[in-house]
Structures are given as C-alpha cells and as structure tokens.
Amino acid sequence: MVTIRIFALVTCTLGSAVAFAGPHGNPMCPQLAAFAASATESDVQTVRLMTDWNADQTRACQRGNGSSGVRLCNWLLDHASAEVMAANIVQALECAGMWRPKRGSDQHVDRIAGLVRAHPFAESKDVELILEFDSSPKDILPWLSISVKRWK
Fold first, then answer.
1. Is 81 inside any structural domain?
2. pLDDT (tens digit, 9 = 90+) per residue, 80-113?
3. Containing domain of residue 33, as a range?
4. What is the rounded distance in angstroms from the CA atom of residue 69 to the CA atom of residue 5?
5. pTM as predicted
6. How far apart are CA 138 and CA 151, in angstroms?
7. CA torsion, points 45, 95, 78, 58, in degrees to nearest 10?
C-alpha cells in the first residue's frame, strides 16, 4: 500500500508541450489546457469536483458562471472516476507535469492530499494551474479543485 501526502507548496516551471499534451495520452490534459486558455487577468477561475462512491456513484462539480468552467465540469462529470478520487487527482497531476507514471507498472495511490502550482501551464507562458485536493477527507466528500490564473 502506497500513501502519498503532498503538503508543501510546489511551484514548477515546465515545457509547455509536456503540460499541454500530457503523458501517455491522458484525456484530461486537453480539457485542462482549454480551461487554462480561458483564464483572465481579473480573477482566478475554479472548478471543484466531488465524488461519492455509494450505490449511485455520485459526481458533483461546482463552478463559476464562465462557459469554460461549464465545459470542464461537464467533461469531469462524464469522465471522472466516481469510485477513486485519487485516480482523478493523479490524472490532473500528470497534466501539470508533477506525476510521472512508470511504464509497465501498476501504480496505485490510496490517499493523496495537497496543493500544487504549475507555471507556466499549457501553451500560455502567463497562465498558472493550481490544483488542490484531498482524496480521503474525514467529514466531507473527496474533492479536486482546479484553478487557473493569468499573470499580468
């Protein structure tokens, strides 16, 4: 059993191609890149995915009024794992260039919580991706918050 906890604030500068394309054809990466492209200088845009692995395998997504948040939430609701929030978090970390899967291995993450920042992200050198997450909180549903901010 592997338990990973990320408590430190991590800032990473990455080549834009790695963050945009994502490793191994990760389908979340183009969605995050499109969300990042919509970032404005005026505020931080955020979506928050929550999942509950019960009989109904519930997924919920909170977002602002912007169309890019609506698109990302709709994609997450259709494609995110309801059973294992850690899998969704790992996918997002892959897109940010902060998780490198080993080919041919069966990696499994039981718990992961933290806050990471990737700047620059995707094709924009002035956009920061902020991921905050907890796959096993005590009194609330597991969650993944995805925010983008454009620097002036």
1. yes
2. 998 889 999 999 999 999 887 666 666 667 789 9
3. 10-150
4. 27
5. 0.80
6. 35
7. -80
